[in-house]
Design a protein that fits this description.
heterodimer, A: 434 residues, alpha/beta, Rossmann fold, 6-stranded mixed β-sheet, 15 helices, globular, B: 320 residues, mainly alpha, ABC transporter involved in vitamin B12 uptake, BtuC, 74% helix, 0% strand
Chain lengths: 434, 320
């Protein structure tokens, strides 16, 4: 189906891919795992024909479709219209025809998406990623490449995705699946390829691996997790309706994406307290950093004064404290990797010692090392007395960090749940059946 | 560095095309006359600098607005509003007149930002429409309440205050004020928290908001600041050069400011150079009209060529 031989690709001085070879057979589900910057996405963009390799060959029998990590949708158009854009032309595009074709296409894909007349801008991220998947499947590719498809999906939606993937593979489509989430990689893939620093460092049948072995192969060195610092719970910092967050406490809001999490985070920005709060936005490329500005400028944005020399010194200190991989404080924030961008945001928001820290999907799309770093920092912030509100669709993350949880469903919060209670009741609450 | 090269190349390309147009129409010495008329004598040099002053201020106006992501195309109207206010306030002295000019420019621009805040009306449209209103307001003034007592021409009396001359030249203090304004704009943009926020708002309003910046207030302030610069330009032109109001007073300075700012890469200090370049072009074109009977519109041609070159090769290309 797909044969890649000796691919090398550099961006400037940075060698993104170093002599990579790979074979994928029809009907096979192959997962590619690796840290941020391991070269996974670059390799797949070469397969999809979006990038040309410096050397090496790609042989592909048949068509390829790629679902990108970032949405490629027109927000102003409806689901049906977005699908029509991706499909071959079909006679007169009356609204009725467009909607009928969209409904048929969605039904055929086996994915549920509801009313096709809704504007894409109004959809949740989970629904948008389903639409991207339907678009890709509708082209009936012989090879389907999925780049981090589950990073915004709930467990239930991920299950739905896996069902679709298995059905496609059974029909002879080759699937390449890029992910950070090791348990799901082990669950879905037949073969797992581990990349590190632009090279394939391990390759194995999925049933010969477990999560620990996989993590070992992905991460060069294995840092021992820092013991969580002892925390004492203090006064109430945030009190609104059913939601109470105390100093030193980590409260997690879990739920299916699109159930009011964004609105909740947004409404907290309007509080008088917001002046002394730190925010880690869900969409960090849009809401987190000014890509064209330097790290120093981005860090100084929330300050009341701006002296270039002081800002550079402060940024240099934070780059060191937060182990941000940057050449200098003057480097443009947009040129950093995703994990390092998130560290810059963390550094800026935490360095002010906020009373309240609101972290929305703080580790989405980050690799293991960066995720661990972010988690440690959230714990440290709580230990230093910040009230931490974690809004996440990653249940592992919520259970790893939270003292108390709420489930959000259709904009409403459940009662306070202890981790034990939440483990039992969350699935039903998230599905709205409790 | 690359930006500087592109800007220089755009300027050079415009000159070369203008020269080639001259050759094609039998005016082989067009470039020479252009140079002589703009830089070749003290008189020519003074003319160039006098033309550069209003261009520098409208250029700064555009640069400040565009940096904040506010598309103020209303320099022309704000320039006129500034001149009108300066004329009316001139009995109070030159300082009061210039302050009135800045205030009027800021207020005129703020009409557009209010409409943006109230109904989200795009300032690209409202500022242009406000230009027409200002032009006709000026026309009414110089045909009515502000017309000279003799009532002979559609123009005002001579303003009571004026800017002092610089020594024994045609130049006036406005030249110095305009350069100071450029330095102040640079300081604001790159050495103050306000400037940092203004630039962040222009580059990524979402992230600016995420960092706790009130972007609505930022837009209002940027627009007012931009209008104040253009208004100051109008006040200085009145008190330093024309001394009277008349129809066609702004004569396109507001729009030319866009070319000036773009050629300068929206950098306030570079705007000093680009406004001098365009000032030279306009002054040289005047000499062409006088001695070679070539329309002074050739300056407009040069300006258009610069914008075209930047649109094709500069950083203002649309993102795909």
């Amino acid at each position: 189906m797909l044969t890649i031989r000796d691919i090398t690709k550099s961006f400037g001085a940075n060698r993104a891919l170093d002599d990579v070879s790979l074979v994928v057979a029809a009907g096979e589900i192959v997962a590619i795992v690796g840290e941020n910057g391991a070269g996974k996405t670059t390799l797949m963009r070469i397969v999809a024909g979006e990038l040309a390799p410096d050397s090496g060959t790609v042989t592909l029998n048949g068509s390829v479709a790629m679902v990108h990590q970032h949405f490629m949708l027109v927000n102003e158009l409806t689901i049906a219209e977005n699908l029509a854009l991706a499909l071959p032309p079909f006679g007169f595009a009356t609204r009725r025809a467009v909607e009928n074709v969209a409904e048929a296409t969605i039904a055929e894909s086996g994915i549920e998406l509801g009313d096709v007349r809704r504007r894409v801008g109004e959809l949740s991220v989970g629904e948008k990623s389903k639409l991207e998947l339907i678009k890709a499947i509708a082209r009936r590719p012989r090879l389907l490449v999925l780049d981090e498809p589950t990073s915004v999906l709930t467990p239930h939606e991920s299950e739905e995705l896996f069902r679709v993937i298995r059905a496609l593979a059974a029909g002879g489509t080759a699937i390449i699946f890029i992910s950070h989430k090791l348990p799901e990689v082990l669950a879905i893939a037949q073969r797992i390829i581990v990349m590190r620093g632009g090279r394939v460092v391990a390759e194995s049948a999925a049933n010969a691996l477990d999560a620990t072995k996989l993590a070992d192969a992905m991460v060069a060195r294995r840092a021992t997790p820092a013991p969580p610092p002892a925390r004492s719970i203090g006064d109430v910092v945030l009190q609104r309706d059913d939601l109470t967050v105390r100093a030193g406490e980590i409260v997690a809001i879990i739920g299916v994406a699109g159930n009011g999490q964004a609105e909740l985070a947004e409404s907290l920005r309007e509080l008088p307290l917001a002046r002394r709060a730190g925010f880690i936005p869900e969409d960090r490329t849009r809401d987190g950093l000014v890509a064209e500005m330097s790290i120093a400028e981005n860090i100084a944005l929330s300050e009341s004064s701006w002296r270039p020399r002081d800002a550079v010194q402060r940024a240099a200190r934070l780059i060191e404290t937060y182990a941000i991989r940057a050449q200098s404080p003057a480097q443009a924030a947009g040129s950093l990797s995703g994990g390092n961008q998130q560290k810059v945001i963390l550094a800026r928001e935490l360095d002010r010692k906020p009373l309240l820290l609101v972290a929305a999907e703080p580790t989405r799309g980050l690799d293991i090392e960066s995720t661990r770093f972010v988690h440690d920092e959230l714990r440290v912030a709580a230990a230093h007395g910040s009230a931490v509100l974690l809004i996440t669709s990653d249940l592992d993350e919520a259970f790893a960090l939270a003292d108390t949880l709420h489930v959000i469903y259709r904009g409403r919060l459940s009662e306070r749940l202890s981790p034990v209670e939440a483990a039992e009741r969350a699935p039903a609450l998230m599905a709205g059946v409790a | 560095m690359k930006r500087v090269v592109i800007a220089l190349a755009a300027g050079a390309a415009a000159i070369i095309v203008v020269a080639l147009a001259g050759v094609a129409t039998g005016h082989r010495d067009l470039l020479l006359i252009l140079l002589r008329g703009s830089l070749g004598s003290q008189f020519a040099l003074e003319g160039t600098l006098l033309k550069a002053v209003p261009l520098l201020l409208t250029g700064l106006s555009v640069a400040l607005a565009f940096r904040a992501g506010v598309w103020n195309i209303g320099g022309e109207g704000q320039f006129i509003a500034g001149a009108l206010a300066a004329f009316i306030a001139s009995p109070l002295g030159v300082v009061a007149a210039l302050l009135a000019a800045m205030l009027a420019g800021a207020l005129w621009a703020s009409i557009a930002s209010l409409m943006r805040l109230w109904r989200n009306a795009p300032e690209v449209l409202t500022t242009i429409l406000l230009n027409f209103i200002a032009i006709h307001l000026l026309g009414w003034c110089v045909n009515g309440p502000l017309q000279e007592p003799s009532g002979q021409y559609p123009q005002s009396d001579v303003a009571i205050a004026s800017l002092p001359s610089l020594g024994a030249t045609e130049l006036h203090l406005g030249v110095v004020l305009a350069v100071l304004a450029a330095i102040a704009a640079w300081f604001l943009l790159y050495r103050t928290a306000e400037g940092l926020r203004l630039r962040a708002t222009g580059l990524n309003p979402h992230a600016a908001r995420g960092a706790g910046i009130n972007i609505r207030a930022q837009i209002v302030r940027a627009m007012a600041l931009s209008g104040a610069m253009a208004g100051l330009g109008g006040g200085i032109e009145l008190l330093g050069v024309t001394h009277r109001l008349f129809e066609g007073f702004a004569s396109g300075y507001g729009y030319s400011g866009i070319a000036v700012a773009l050629l300068a890469g929206l950098h306030p200090l570079a705007t000093i150079i680009s406004s001098t370049f365009f000032g030279a072009l306009v002054t040289g074109a005047g000499e062409l009209q006088r001695s070679a009977n070539i329309s002074a519109q050739v300056a407009t041609l040069g300006q258009a060529l610069v914008i075209l070159a930047l649109a094709l090769f500069g950083r203002y290309r649309a993102h795909d």
